[in-house]
Amino acid sequence: MSVEKRLLEAHRWLAQAWDDWEAGKALLERGKHAQAAFLAQQAGEKALKALWIALGLDPWGHSLARLLRDLPPEEAPA
Q1: What parts of the sequence cross the membrane (predicted)?
Q2: Domain boundaries, position 32
Q3: What is the pTM of this model?
């Protein structure tokens, strides 16, 4: 995949993450805690997958911990 296509795909994932985050905030304001928590997890997963894709890596799975742990050391948060 070209760099341009990869970055467009990463942007698409990040936009979906933002939409999930915004929807989760709206649900939280309505007292829908379980649904808000689910969307918060989804937002985190999609944001991490956007990072993986932007780096040219192939994200796999749904575990936030694994998606963070398996980032290349130079890309992992401090």
Answers
A1: none
A2: 3-69
A3: 0.90
